[in-house]
Amino acid sequence: MFNYIKFALFQIFGFLLSVPKLINLKFNEKKYNSIEKFKFIKSHAKKSLDLVKIKINVVGKERVPKEEVLFVLNHSSMLDSYILISSIVKPVGVIIADVPVWRNIPIVSGWLNLMKCVYINRENNREGMKSIIKASENIKMGQSMAVFPEGDLTWVKDPDALISDFKPGSLKIAYKAKCPIVPMVIKNSKSTYEGYEPVGKIHSGQVEVEYLDAIYDHLENPKIKTTELAQMIKEKMLAAM
After folding, report:
1. Contact 142, 101 (CB under 8 A)
2. CA-CA distance, 92 to 65, in Å (whole number)?
């Protein structure tokens, strides 16, 4: 549990000390570009993982287009959001499950809003579509977005799967934003966190993040179904695993 205690204390003190920066950015938002707004969160994520000796090797950065994109990732660990943020090549907002803990957690929720993260209600289709539209508008306005389309941890949905089935509706973001999709494969992250609750055991180790080739099929053929696109992306990610 020593790694977890170190990690948890760093979150508490790191975010507490970030309050002046957060207030400055919120009240002077137009003065700062997305890179400047994202700088603290990325640095905090990298330092958090370094503290518990989780090393990230990133492959394929050159495959990411200059334009804004929808990043699509597999999800095997409670630490995957930290792995995503520390390895991402451009500022990104994340699609987050609409649960009270994320909306109301002090200070952290302020940073999530500044990053233009979007909360999505998976139980209500109408509310879910509003979130999809909001995320697509963020992309149109110059903010890439990222989604874990499995909707839950891989091993929780299917203990025997490398990647479980996608919820294809999340890919509608890329259709509406008319942007490319960039799959990202996180390898070996399952062993970094033992458990499915906010309190668990963190294990040191090596994780690889690989960017795959950008996908434009839905732009070239807007009639392609999200279910077909989801299956194609999943197969590409499995091949990379």
Report:
1. no
2. 14
Give me the phi and psi of 191, to 5 degrees please: -75, -5
Cβ contact 123:82 at 8 Å = no
- CATH number of the structural domain 2-240: 3.40.1130
Count other C-beta atoms under 10 Å from residue 195's C-beta.
12
Secondary element (H or E) of residue 114: helix 108-114
Model pLDDT for residues 50-103, shown as the tens digit of each residue: 999 999 999 999 999 999 999 999 999 999 999 999 999 999 999 998 877 777
Joined together, the tokens standing for residue 136 give 């697509």
The pTM score is 0.94
The pLDDT score that the predictor gives to residue 98 is 82
- Domain-by-domain residue ranges, the chain? 2-240
CB atoms < 10 A from the CB of 159, how many? Answer: 8
